[in-house]
Amino acid sequence: MKMPSKIFAVSIAFTLAASAQDTLYMSVLSSHAYRIGAQDNPIVGLFGSADGGNSWHHEGWINYIRVFYTEAASDGTLWSACGNGVLRSTDAGASWKITTGWQITEALKVRADNSDPSVVYAATAYGIFKTTDHGATWKKKSRGLPGRFTADVIIDEQNHAHLFAATEEGVYVSRDAGGHWMLCGLKGKGIRMLLQEQNNPQTLWAGTEDDGLLKSENDGATWKPMNNGLSAKTVYALASNPSDSRLLFAGTHGGGVFRSRDGGEHWTQQNNGLTNLVVHALLVLPSHPQSVFAGTLNGGLFRSDDEGNSWKFVCQPEAQVWGLSVR
Amino acid sequence: MFNFQFSIMKHYAGVFPLLLIASFCSLYSEHQSRDEYLKAYEQRARYETILYDTMQNPGIYGATVRYAENRDLAVADSLLLNCSQIKHPQGDMFWMYPVIGTYLHGKGKMSAAAAAAVRNAWKTYAPYRGDTENHWAMYYASLYLAAEQWRNLPGSEWFNGKSSEENLNDAKEYLIHWIHITTTIGQGEFDSPDYLPEYMNAMTLLAEFAKDPAMKQRGKMMLDYLLADFAVDELGGEYIGGFSRIYQPAVYKPWLSGASAFAYLYFGTGGPVQSGWTLLSALSDYRLPQIIYDIATDRSHPFVNKERKRIRNILRYRKEMNPPVYKYSYITKDYGIGSLQGGILQPIQQHTWGVRYLYGKPTSTIFGLHPYWSGYELAMFFPEERKTMIADVVSSKGTYNKDDKWTSSSPYERTFQHKNTVIVLYDISPGTTSEHIDGFFPKNLQRRIVDPSGWIMCKAGDTYIGWYPLQEYRWMQLKDDEDNFRLRSYKLQNGYVVEVRSKDEVGSFEKFGMMLRKHLPTAVLKPGAVSVKYTTLRGDRMFFAFPRTRMLNGKEVNLGSYKLFDSPFAHADVGSEKLTLTYKNRKMVLDFKKLSITK
């Protein structure tokens, strides 16, 4: 689909120098500001920023599509997990294609394999699906999963045939690129997100529906709660500082943002200026790691330039910023 | 659920708000021969279309009618080019079907500019697929027809980046899948007075315009199927509950539902209704088979209709994606009473049981419910976060988290129906949303007597309703209820027995009251142990223990044995893909495996 020429930009008064390498993507699912029949309804969907989050441009599908998460693959392809399925753009968002058929919808996360960008996984409300041909065809890869709903899937950076899935019944692992799944840990817990530490890939984090954060330092073999000071126990997002893996940020339901400077041993609430405390997405700017972005559900996008000490509203008032990513 | 566009377009039929109830007379047409029926049908169809000749701003359907009737083509072109659907597309699948329907009626008649505008809209406007079954029916039926029209175009010429062939195949696969599951395990968004129109429009367009003969046949057969499903549950132009989905206030003003417009058009029942919903049907060549008309309009003998449907796709918290729904209805010439088994069968708009009758339209119903809401319920069916979903739903369906709402599923509610007797039990967990149950009683009842026996005795014309509350209650009259009566009981272990009879069945209202006084239920109402014993006015012994023990005359009732359809008029086995309709010595078989209609 070719996008109309109308471009929506949000300029914000930040003057930080941004690396040209950092392209940020913000997936805006919907907006409570939507008014029935209004002609001036807010534009939702995918927004991108090539200047470190100083300005944001609508990059995606112009009409309502329910974008949950967008990721840029190593070959530059944009993949969006949407209500309508998995969308692909090979021209930086100028045009899009729904690569999936009617069976694959309510896609919540999409993950491209960094070593082979033709391989992409989608975590959906109907299970996990995989393409090995850049979206030309998709196959269901849910054998062994406990149910349909899968909130997240991540690819082990040490071994790309190893995958971890966030399900309603715990963390599941596949050792054969999605061919089979088995329980990894946290049986019975609703898992909302997974994170593998970049600098320490043996370490996995799981954000849960009701049990806070849990950490595994042995590739998922054992897990321990990391909730000291984490007063909100629903964790939707976790971000680590790329230059200091002990500096972590957790996005929670109702508790806003929590920060840990000791690798998750202790957490403190950091909500100065954050006017919406349902934080569904977090992103530390790689080129300027003091800067952190927080996507809220129904409060829009916020930004901190002092490691979470204070926050300022950026854009998309009343919107559900479901996902943030960077390439 | 979350696309706020849907709710407005739902009511506006993608065109404009239009629902005229011209008259409340003629609730039932006389039984007609085929010739009489067809003649009367043409008059009703004309009644649906003529409105668009006189409206000052008829919008896209003004063009549709003119194209279909091959007249005023310049006017039609102008109406099309200036309608909101072309100038400012919005509404997703509610945009898709009127636009492709209008194009197909106008093909070969419309100007090149008008045709180009429609084609361009399918390139530049990207409709959302939606998140419910009616959305998908409209989306894929419309997409199928569009892809058939514009073959061999690359993805760059389509809103979704897919080529014509990819769109055609995707839409075809979905439609075949939907028809298959509907005719094997039942419709998910079943018996919905407010959503029947969406399916009717989607299937009407397929039946009318699909180039592929097989798909055209599927469309026609699904029209027969949908209308047969309606016909066996219909009285006086209204669906008999329970329902998967219905809006307020239509739940207590049944006439307001879109299904009534189709009842008028196809069955001649109810009163004349002009509605944008029925326009595409009124313009189509589809004609209702006589046997379905006969089934819909013959209420000379009371009958039981049992159906099996399915729960819409469950995404989480349950292993089975589409567990069964069991519906039981009892229908006479004066009233119908029907129920689903209870529990969470649909989020948000479920109507579990109710009595509807001919007297007192439009407020011609009595029903009860436990008003329940929860993030768990929503998260079962929608992919967003459990803890934020209630607020999201309320932003478009404002009654969802209200104690006083009139549509709801509840995990704490179960029913047991035998003929014209319904027992409803509740075992409500403390602390849940709404620690009370409600009953709806119209203010226009001729009698509403609280008898010393405990029975509430109601008279609605020739229909008599007895309601025996198992716990103490009080009456309320709320402005939001339009001053109708609300029975409210705050006991968590609760329930009631409802008996319905007509003047024909028992004679006078006073006699009905005397009968009720001799039939008092006995109940156990403790947490985790809620049960009732009751002998009906017919003398049948019912024992019901929450949630699932149902005994009739000493034998357990096995809901699992329900067929897709089981009544004197309709029969379909689970998994059969075949519906057999019978009326007197006539029979019609819809065989979806063979794509054949046998009469």
List keywords for this structure.
heterodimer; A: 327 residues; mainly beta; Methylamine Dehydrogenase, Chain H; five-stranded antiparallel β-sheet; four-stranded antiparallel β-sheet; 29 strands; globular; B: 599 residues; alpha+beta; 13-stranded antiparallel β-sheet; seven-stranded antiparallel β-sheet; disordered N terminus
Tell me the layout of helices and strands:
The complex is a heterodimer of chains A (327) and B (599).
Chain A: E1 9-11, E2 24-31, E3 45-49, E4 55-58, E5 67-72, E6 78-82, E7 85-89, E8 97-98, E9 107-112, E10 120-124, E11 127-131, E12 139-140, E13 150-155, E14 163-167, E15 170-174, E16 182-185, E17 191-196, E18 204-208, E19 213-216, E20 224-225, E21 235-241, E22 244-252, E23 257-260, E24 268-269, E25 279-284, E26 292-296, E27 300-304, E28 312-315, E29 319-326
Antiparallel strand pairs in A: 1-4, 2-3, 2-29, 3-4, 5-6, 6-7, 7-8, 9-10, 10-11, 11-12, 13-14, 14-15, 15-16, 17-18, 18-19, 19-20, 21-22, 22-23, 23-24, 25-26, 26-27, 27-28
Chain B: H1 4-12, E1 19-21, H2 34-49, H3 51-54, H4 59-68, H5 73-82, H6 84-87, H7 93-106, H8 112-124, H9 133-149, H10 164-184, H11 196-209, H12 213-231, E2 234-235, E3 238-239, H13 259-267, E4 273-275, H14 279-282, H15 290-297, E5 303-310, E6 324-331, E7 335-340, E8 342-343, E9 353-357, E10 365-369, H16 375-381, H17 389-394, E11 410-418, E12 421-427, E13 437-441, E14 447-450, E15 456-460, E16 463-469, E17 474-477, E18 485-489, E19 493-502, H18 503-506, H19 509-517, E20 522-526, E21 529-535, E22 541-545, E23 549-552, E24 555-556, E25 565-566, E26 570-572, E27 578-583, E28 586-591, E29 596-598
Antiparallel strand pairs in B: 1-4, 2-3, 5-6, 5-25, 6-7, 7-9, 8-11, 9-10, 10-13, 11-12, 12-19, 13-18, 14-15, 15-16, 16-19, 17-18, 20-21, 21-22, 22-23, 23-24, 25-26, 26-27, 27-28, 28-29
